C-alpha cells in the first residue's frame, strides 16, 4: 500500500482563484504540508478560507536566506517524513502559492521526492502576475508582443534595452530593485507602468499613477508590469 | 437596472483547471458568450464538462485572419448585442481559453465594452504554458532565472541569443515557426527541450525526446519550453 503526493498550486492569494482540481486534491489529502511560521502563512490564510479540514494541515518553517543550505536541510527532513507517511498509504499534499512550477521554492522538495522514486504529480495554478493583470483589466500581452519576466534583478539600462526592443516586462520581487526602478522611471516616462501590491488580499493595491509609483517603497509582495510606450521625440 | 459583464478565463483545456471564481461567474451569468463554430469550440468543450446550464451558452464565430478587420466587425456587433442585454439587467459572461489577459483575442471585446462605459471585470485563469510545466513536473523558472515568452515568431539566431544569455524560453503557436525550431535544434543539442501538444485534452502529449521533437510537424495547439543548457566545449 502506497499513498500519493500532490504538489498543489494555491493561486495568487484570493482563495477563489484556486482551481477545482487543486481544491479536490487538498480535500482528498490525509495530510497537507504548508510553508509558514506559527504566526504567518499566506498559504494557510488561503486554506482557511476554503472548505478544507484544517486539522490535516502541518505548517513547516523554511529559513529565509540567500544561502540555501539551511532551507534545503529543512526540505530534506520533511521529505524523509513524507516518504515514511506515503509508505503507510497516506495521501500527501504540499502547497505552493501562485503556481508551483513558477519561481516556487517548494519545487526543491518535489525534485527530492521524485529522486526518491515517490509518486508525485503537480497541479497548475494562477501566477501572481496573471492575477495582477486581471484585477486591472489589463491585456498583459497581445497578438505578436513578446514578454519578459524578471525576478527582481535588473538595472535601469537593461530595462531600457528590453522596452526599446518592444518587450512587455513583468518585474517580480520589486523590493529587490527599488532604486533601479526609480532611476529608470525618472527618464522614461513614455512607458505604461502598472504597479501592484498584495494581489488577492484585502490590502490589494493597483496604481498607474506615475508620481505614486516613483516615490513608493515597494513591499515584499509587489510587482510591476511595464508595457512599452512610444519613444519620445 | 443594469447587469454586469465578466471576462471569464477557462484555463488551458482541462475542465477542472478552471478557478472556483470563474465557475461561480459562469453559473451566475444569464448568458455566456463563447467563441467557436457550430462544429468546433474548445471553450464549449470545457463548459460542457462543468456544472453549467448549457442553454445559456451563445456561440459566436470569429473569422481567423492576420487582417483583423472582419474579426473586429464580429466583435463590435456582439458588443452592441451585449450592451442591449446589460441595459435590461442581464448578467453576461464572455469566455476565454487560458487566461483572458494573456494573448487572448476576446480582450478586444473587453476594451470595446469598457470604452462603452459598461461595467466589466475580468477573472484570471491558468495559462497553457503554466499547465504544460505542471503536467511534466517541470520547474519552469526558479530562483534568479529570467523568462521570455514568444508568440511563435522567432529565428534560430534570436533563440540562440536568448538561451546563451540564460533566458528560459517559452514558444507558443509553435506551428508558425516549425522550420526555425528544427534549424535551431540541429546545432544546439545542449539545451533542454520540452515539447507539449493539446495540453489539457485527451490528446495531450509531452516529449523531451530530441529525435521526436526535431522531426515533428507541430499542430496548432502546441508549445515548447526550452531551458538553457551548458554551452558545448
From TrEMBL, chains A, B:
Domain of life: Bacteria
Root EC class: transferase
UniProt GO molecular function: precorrin-2 C20-methyltransferase activity
Gene3D superfamilies found in the cross-reference section: Cobalt-precorrin-4 Transmethylase, Domain 1, Methyltransferase, Cobalt-precorrin-4 Transmethylase, Domain 2
Keyword tags: Cobalamin biosynthesis, Methyltransferase, S-adenosyl-L-methionine, Transferase
EC numbers on record: 2.1.1.130
Cited Pfam families: TP_methylase
Pathway(s): Cofactor biosynthesis; adenosylcobalamin biosynthesis
Keyword presence, Methyltransferase: yes
Family: Belongs to the precorrin methyltransferase family.
Protein name: Precorrin-2 C(20)-methyltransferase
Amino acid at each position: 500500500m502506497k499513498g500519493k503526493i500532490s504538489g498543489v498550486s494555491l493561486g495568487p492569494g484570493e482563495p477563489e482563484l484556486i482551481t477545482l482540481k487543486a481544491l479536490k486534491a487538498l480535500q482528498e489529502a490525509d495530510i497537507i504540508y504548508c510553508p509558514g511560521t506559527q504566526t504567518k502563512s499566506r498559504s494557510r490564510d488561503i486554506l482557511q478560507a476554503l472548505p478544507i479540514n484544517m486539522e490535516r494541515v502541518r505548517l513547516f518553517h523554511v529559513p529565509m536566506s540567500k544561502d540555501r543550505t539551511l532551507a534545503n536541510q529543512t526540505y530534506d527532513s520533511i521529505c524523509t517524513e513524507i516518504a515514511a507517511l506515503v509508505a503507510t498509504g497516506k495521501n500527501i499534499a504540499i502547497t505552493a502559492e501562485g503556481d508551483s512550477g513558477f519561481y516556487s521554492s517548494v519545487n526543491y522538495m518535489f525534485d527530492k521526492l521524485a529522486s526518491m522514486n515517490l509518486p508525485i504529480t503537480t497541479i497548475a495554478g494562477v501566477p501572481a502576475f496573471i492575477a495582477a493583470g486581471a484585477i486591472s483589466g489589463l491585456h498583459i500581452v497581445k497578438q505578436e508582443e513578446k514578454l519578459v519576466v524578471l525576478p527582481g534583478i535588473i538595472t535601469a539600462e537593461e530595462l531600457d534595452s528590453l522596452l526599446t526592443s518592444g518587450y512587455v516586462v513583468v518585474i517580480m520581487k520589486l523590493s529587490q530593485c527599488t532604486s533601479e526602478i526609480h532611476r529608470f522611471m525618472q527618464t522614461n516616462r513614455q512607458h505604461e507602468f502598472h504597479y501592484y501590491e498584495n494581489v488577492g488580499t484585502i490590502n490589494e493595491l493597483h496604481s498607474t499613477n506615475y508620481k505614486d509609483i516613483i516615490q513608493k517603497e515597494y513591499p515584499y509582495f509587489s510587482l510591476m508590469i511595464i508595457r512599452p510606450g512610444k519613444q519620445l521625440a
